[in-house]
Amino acid sequence: MKRALSFAALLSVLATFVAPCAQAEEIASVNTNFRFTGSDRVSVEAYDDPLVAGVTCYVSRARTGGVKGTLGIAEDPTEASIACRQVAPIKIAEPLKQKADVFSDRMSFIFKTLHVVRIVDAKRNTLVYLTYSDRITTGSAKNSVTAVPVPEGTTIPVK
User: Fold this and answer.
1) By CB count within 10 A, which of 3, 4, 16, 38 is most buried?
2) Are 32 and 44 contacting, i.e. CB atoms less than 8 angstroms apart?
3) Is residue 157 part of a domain?
4) Which residue, 120, 124, 106, 129, is CA-closest to 48?
5) Helix (H/G/I), strand (E/B), else coil: 133
6) Contacts of 24 (CB under 8 A, 6+ apart)
7) Domain assignment of residue 53, yes or no
8) What range does the domain containing 144 cover?
9) How many CB atoms sit inside 10 A of residue 73's CB?
10) Is the pTM of this model over 0.85?
11) Hey, which residues does 82 pair with through a beta bridge?
């Protein structure tokens, strides 16, 4: 008996293949709204840029608690903030796209996603990182941006 994939299952499978490989490491979190079933919180996560050794981005974002949050079916708020820093000597192994998703993570069961995008500002020899969220049908204008200047003598190779 053949079973057709649901739209949600198909999206989940596709996200597995197209998602960038950076993984989040939760640094800390603070509770913002107490609930007996699990508090809402703001978490701070670190993401190492997979193509730029020596750059780490710190993203703070709201996480919904409660029963739905515990089960992973709650929709997190769209607010997020980002700060990227040089934490070691910068080494770029291969030419970078002028604009590329470095990381994405779901903010709801299916339709809402947080993105971290790397933008190369070749004129200023700087890496710019932008965070925003989107949905399949609508996005959010809420965003945050940060920049990491690449040390003099190191040129950013661009595809």
Assistant:
1) 38
2) no
3) no
4) 129
5) strand
6) 45, 46, 47, 59, 103, 105
7) yes
8) 20-149
9) 12
10) no
11) 59
Q: How is the chain split among helix, strand and coil, in percent rounded to 5?
A: 15, 55, 35
Q: Is residue 3 part of a domain?
A: no
Pair of tokens at residue 52: 């730029």
Residues belonging to the chain:
159
The per-residue pLDDT string of the chain (159 residues; one tens digit each, 9 = 90 and over) reads 344 434 433 333 333 334 445 677 889 877 777 666 666 778 899 999 999 999 999 998 876 665 455 555 555 566 789 999 999 999 998 999 999 999 887 655 556 678 899 999 999 999 999 998 876 666 667 889 999 999 998 999 998
Q: Which residue has the tokens 């661009």?
A: 158
Could you identify the residue written with the tokens 């993401």? Answer: 47
9 is a domain residue: no
Instruction: Work out whether the CA dihedral 47, 28, 15, 115 comes out positive or negative.
Output: negative
Q: How far is Cα 69 from Cα 149, in angstroms, rounded to an integer?
A: 37
